[in-house]
Design brief:
Shape: globular
InterPro entries: CBS_dom (IPR000644), CBS_dom_sf (IPR046342), Diverse_CBS-Domain (IPR051257)
Distance between the termini: 19 Å
Keywords: CBS domain
CATH class of one domain: Alpha Beta
Organism: Amazonocrinis nigriterrae CENA67
Pfam families: CBS
Protein name: CBS domain-containing protein
Strand content: 5-15%
CATH topology of one domain: CBS domain Like
Helix content: 25-40%
Number of strands: 3
């Protein structure tokens, strides 16, 4: 049975919540990815996630300037995380039930 760890992206790219959306877009373009994990502010904090969809729906659609908006203003937090041992079937069900397309795989 295939597991989340078998299909996950191993090189995760992160960004600070205080970074601008313009910086996030630049990093996504540079790395050719569609989502960034937002760093925790401290050990007890949760990870966040910011996606292309967040940027389009929460910034571009409203005519906001990506240089003036911070990642923390549009990210999802806490983000749903997936255990690497979880079967792909259950990952697919989770994504379908919650309506998401990506989630960090964290042990």
């Amino acid at each position: 049975m295939m597991k989340a760890e078998d299909i996950m992206t191993k090189d995760v790219v992160t960004i600070r919540g205080s970074a601008t959306v313009a910086e996030a877009v630049g990093l996504m373009k540079e790395k050719r990815i569609r989502a960034l994990v937002v760093d925790r502010r401290h050990d007890d904090d949760a990870y966040g996630i910011v996606t292309e969809t967040d940027i389009v729906y929460k910034v571009i659609a409203y005519g906001k300037d990506p240089k003036q908006i911070r990642v923390y203003e549009i990210m999802s937090k806490p983000c749903i995380v997936v255990n690497p041992e979880l079967s792909v079937e259950y990952v697919a069900r989770l994504f379908a039930n919650i309506g998401i397309h990506r989630a960090p795989v964290i042990q």
